[in-house]
């Protein structure tokens, strides 16, 4: 909802109602660009590996984004006799697991113009090292978000340190878009 001020202009004896520009709170029909950076830390330096962007309306309704693929995970089973001995050849079946990035995010503007972002982010990928039984090893991160962001300023929402040499992170940034889909924070800088 836009705040209005009434000004009396004595020269023309005219009353004008104009939106307050400083601290003007955008309405729920304003679009917000949400950007996620997923990466790792290599030798103390952040390396962004993947970037995902989605546009959400600032009406507080969640928006879903998903990218990736389902991969087969082999599961081997054996028929067993009454005495516990294996009978026949092993049977292999497959379970499919989603690998990739997904986000379910909502956004709305606070009275001070900051952006309230809520939702959930999941990122998973295959590592180069298979598990001991030969099945793929899946690295995944899940993060629930409830954060207040300043327009155009990034915030690290997740960091996982696996060892002295590997660290993974997810960073989120929210930017108000104008009616033409341009970033407002960039225009005003």
Could you name the key traits of this structure?
189 residues, mainly beta, 4-stranded antiparallel β-sheet, 1 helix, 10 strands, disordered N terminus
What do you see in this structure?
It is a single chain. The protein is an all-beta fold. The protein has one domain. 2% of the residues lie in helices and 63% in strands. The protein contains 1 helix and 10 strands. It has a 4-stranded antiparallel β-sheet with strand order 4-3-10-9, with no helix packed on it. The longest helix is centred in the last third of the chain and has 4 residues, at 184-187. The protein is elongated and about 75 Å long.
Q: Helix- and strand-based class?
A: mainly beta
Discrete helix count = 1
Helices and strands, in order, run as EEEEEEEEEEH
Largest beta-sheet characterization? 4 strands, antiparallel
The oligomeric state is single chain
State the total count of DSSP E strands: 10
Main β-sheet, spatial strand arrangement: 4-3-10-9
First-to-last CA distance: 24 Å
**Low-pLDDT stretches:** 1-23
Strand content: over 45%
> What overall form do the CA principal axes indicate?
elongated
> Helical residue percent?
under 10%
Cα-atom radius of gyration: 25 Å
Total individual domains: 1
Mean pLDDT: 79
